[in-house]
Amino acid sequence: MKKLIIPLPFLITLKNFIKCGVIGWCMEILFTALGAIRRRELPLMGQTSPLMFPIYGSAAFFRPVFFLLQRCHVLVRGTIYALSIFAAEYASGRLLSKYDICPWNYSRNRWHVNGLIRLDFFPFWFLAGLLFERQLTAKPSSGSCAEH
Questions:
Q1: What is the pTM of this model?
Q2: How many CB atoms neighbour CB 146 within 10 A?
Q3: Which helix or strand (DSSP H or E) is residue 50 part of?
Q4: DSSP per residue, the chain
Q5: Is the CB of residue 62 less than 8 Å from the CB of residue 87?
Q6: What is the sign of the dihedral through the CA atoms of 78, 28, 17 and 142?
Q7: Which of 34, 36, 66, 140 is the most buried (most CB within 10 A)?
Q8: CB 103, CB 29: distance < 8 Å
Q9: Residue 127 CB: number of other CB atoms within 10 A?
Q10: Domain segments of the chain: what residues?
Q11: Are 133 and 85 in contact (CB under 8 A)?
């Protein structure tokens, strides 16, 4: 029986996909919980959907772009990331809406585009893109605490 060999780049991408999915879920839960403060809902219940995991996880495929843009000013990088996230949010929202399973609907908000993206979320996506960049381009630690 042949031994299954999984190429290292695939494993790195899978690890990063999972990392981005978890980070995205955590950001969304925190963001929606903070929104509860505005509505004076004291339990501060945050929420997300399992459908969001692969959407956030897909940020892992942006890793080469992070390295490509690393010499650009932070305002340029953040703007490119926010616009890219808008595009991904719009495309994934359109796809999920076809099957009537889109977990978000921004139609009631002032700055929405077809109910699928909110332009007033630009600063949040700007920061989220920079967070994903930091997570996916950070150098691995040099060892355990015992070595220091």
A1: 0.86
A2: 5
A3: none
A4: -PPP---HHHHHHHHHHHHHHHHHHHHHHHHHHHHHHHTT-TT------TTHHHHHHGGGGGHHHHHHTTTS-HHHHHHHHHHHHHHHHHHHHHHHHHTT--S---TTSTTEETTTEEGGGHHHHHHHHHHHHHHHHPPPP-S-GGG-
A5: no
A6: positive
A7: 66
A8: no
A9: 14
A10: 12-138
A11: no
Q: State both tokens at 36.
A: 């509860």
Gap between the Cα atoms of 39 and 134, Å rounded: 32
Nearest to 115 by CA among 106, 123, 125, 124: 106
Tokens encoding 59: 């940020």
Q: Is 102 exposed, middle or buried (0-12, 13-18, 19+ CB in 10 A)?
A: middle
Residue entry with tokens 């495929």: 61
3-state secondary structure of 112: strand
Q: How confident is the model at residue 131 (pLDDT cuts 50, 70, 90)?
A: very high
Beta bridge partners of 113: 117
